[in-house]
Amino acid sequence: MNITQDIKYIGVTDYEIDLFEGQYPVPNGMAYNSYVILDEKIAVIDTVDARFCATWFENLETVLSGKSPDYLIVQHMEPDHSGSIKAFCEKYPKTIVVANQKAFNMVKNFFGTDLSDRQIAVGENDTLNLGKHTLTFITAPMVHWPEVTMTYDSFDKVLFSADAFGKFGAFDYDEDWLNEARRYYIGIVGKYGVQVNAVLKKAANLEIEKICALHGPVLSGDLTPYLNAYTKWANYEAEETGVLIAYTSIYGNTKKAVQLLAGELSKKGIKNEVFDLARCDIFEAVSKAFKYDKVVFATTTYNADIFPPMRTFIEYLTARNFQNRKIAFLENGSWGPMATKVMKSLLQDSKNLTICENNITILSGVNEQNKSVITALANELSK
Question: Fewest beta carbons within 10 Å, which of 101, 116, 195, 280?
Answer without folding.
Answer: 116
